[in-house]
Design brief:
This is Rhodanese-related sulfurtransferase. The chain has 161 residues and is α/β, with parallel strands linked by helices. The protein has six helices and five strands. The termini are far apart.
């Protein structure tokens, strides 16, 4: 009986030693654990920074897809669709019911053409660069519901010439 008890204790000690060895072999050194924690923290901080940059880029105004814009325009005929390309570009082709106000005239004529700063305004240009700039300008001027559609080149629906 005493022999069996000794074998049990020896077995238990062997199991504990094997567990300790396994933990020490497979466990990451503390330095590696700290590096991994630092990387995860950096990822979270980068995501937060990107959210902040996106908010600054859009000045609180929103990006919108062609499908979202089309749906909004079909549901609400009071929405202003603003084309900020040149008069010549507008004459070539434009989205139906859009208003042309070239970006170089936006600051001077916005309050005349867009008197309601609470109105929903969807802005587009040719490729998206001017519309992004125009959205920022309008938001800084106090317009509250401004959406950046981007470029007419991405508009897959009806156009007028």
């Amino acid at each position: 009986m005493k022999k069996l008890k000794n074998i049990g204790i020896v077995s238990l000690v062997c199991i504990m030693v094997m567990q300790l060895l396994a933990v020490s072999i497979f466990a990451l050194p503390q330095e590696d654990v700290d590096i991994e924690k630092g990387k995860e923290k950096q990822k979270i901080e980068n995501r937060e920074e990107e959210k902040g940059r996106e908010k600054k880029r859009n000045d609180g105004c929103k990006k919108i897809s062609p499908l979202e814009a089309k749906d909004m325009l079909e549901k609400d005929d009071k929405i202003i669709l603003l084309d900020v390309r040149t008069v010549e570009e507008y004459a070539e082709k434009h989205i139906p019911k859009s208003v042309n106000l070239p970006i170089d005239q936006l600051e001077a004529k916005a309050t005349e053409i867009l008197p309601d700063k609470e109105a929903t305004i969807i802005v587009y240009c040719k490729l998206g660069k001017r519309s992004r700039k125009a959205v920022g300008m309008l938001c800084k001027m106090g317009y509250k519901n401004v959406y950046n559609l981007g470029g007419i080149e991405d508009w897959p629906y009806e156009m007028e010439k």
